[in-house]
Amino acid sequence: MSPVAHLPSLLLPIQTPNWPDLEHSLDQDGSAIIRNLLPSTLCRRLSNLYAEPEHFRSRVIMARHGFGRGEYQYFRYPLPDIVQQLRQSLYPALVPVANRWNERMGIEIRYPDDHRAFLQRCHDAGQLRPTPLLLQYGPQDYNCLHQDLYGEQVFPLQVAILLSEPGLDFTGGEFVLTEQRPRMQSRPQVIGLKQGDAVVFAVHQRPVKGVRGYYRVNMRHGVSCVHSGRRHTLGIIFHDAQ
């Protein structure tokens, strides 16, 4: 029997007093950590889904496309309940940041409070394929720096949840975020995560305040080389793909 049927409901800790601190971190660094978003038992169950192809619409071997080494699978619709709940529950908490960023960057697009309304916007633009995914890395695997852009409609924030335990399930494999400011060298961030932690980060661009107002900086993310073991990650992307 599929473990999806037994995945429990989840009350996401996104309305806690710490959320303003997370918004501050997003504005300051383009990333923020939500500690202990998922319990270890649920992380294991989600990791186990990787071996059940009926949950996925496609599988990508990174080395075949020059993306790095490792692989990932995109979920198909309908999404597993917990993945759907994460997507719908995290989205409205991130909308104020997304709209504020667009205003500061001079981008006219604003995002609706309800994720279903935003998905309808994606589908009207021909972006019909779901983008939440499970990633799997083994020894010597890595993910090159990239951006998850799948069409004209893009929500500017996404979430990655580490499902494996560093030091126990794998070594190496740190989440890496880089920021390219105009006429400057790239600034790297190495994000320390434990099992069940989530990192919220910029998909493409974010605003940074300069002496003449806000300007756009380009963001990319990836995963450093895994030295041993196996690493699983759940990616929550809020826009759908063409």
Give the overall shape.
Answer: globular
Rg is 17 Å
Structural class by SSE content? alpha+beta
Low-confidence stretches: 1-8, 11-17
Give me the count of strands. Answer: 15
- What's the pLDDT, averaged over the residues? 91
Order of adjacent strands in the largest pleated sheet: 1-11-7-15-5-4-2
Commentary on this structure:
- There is one protein chain.
- With 242 residues, this protein is an alpha+beta fold.
- It is globular.
- The protein starts with 18 loop residues before the first helix and ends in a 6-residue tail after the last strand.
- The strands form three sheets. The chain has a seven-stranded antiparallel β-sheet. Strands 3, 6, 9, 10, 12 and 13 form a six-stranded antiparallel β-sheet that branches. A two-stranded antiparallel ribbon has the order 8-14.
- The protein has helices spanning 19-29, 40-48, 62-65, 81-104, 115-124; strands spanning 31-34, 56-61, 68-69, 71-75, 133-137, 142-146, 157-162, 170-172, 175-180, 187-191, 198-202, 205-210, 213-223, 226-229, 231-236.
- Strand 12 (205-210) and strand 13 (213-223) form a beta hairpin.
- 24% of the residues lie in helices and 33% in strands.
